[in-house]
Amino acid sequence: MNSSISDDDLKVAVKAALDGNWEKAHLIAQESNDLIAHWIHAVLHKIEPDDGNSRYWYARAHRNYEDYADPTAELKAIAAHLDNK
């Protein structure tokens, strides 16, 4: 895993996820130790759906699986978070 993934890379991952390109988003998210990357990774597994794996990544991101019912809204929240960093 690469901890030097930039916020711009993470934005690309979020956009890819929102565009339905799960594989591209997953490749980016899994390459980073960043908490936001873990959050993206968690949402991707929620979409898949793979609840067990998703919950694992939420724990690594210090987030809660139940905080968002809608993965699209959650991805938009991640994008907003990245824009406000």
User: Structural class, from secondary structure content?
Assistant: mainly alpha
Shape: globular
- Order of H and E elements: HHHHH
Number of helices: 5
Percent strand: under 5%
Radius of gyration, taken over Cα atoms and rounded to an integer in Å = 11 Å
What's the oligomerization state?
single chain
- End-to-end separation in angstroms reads 22 Å
Number of strands: 0
Mean pLDDT: 93
Summarize the amount of helix as a percent range: 55-70%
Low-confidence stretches: none
What does the largest sheet look like?
none
In short:
By secondary structure, this protein is mainly α.
Summarize the structure in words.
This protein has 85 residues and is mainly α. The chain is 67% helix and 0% strand. The chain has five helices and no strands. Helix 1 packs antiparallel against helix 2. The protein is globular, with a radius of gyration of 11 Å. The two termini are 22 Å apart. The mean pLDDT is 93.
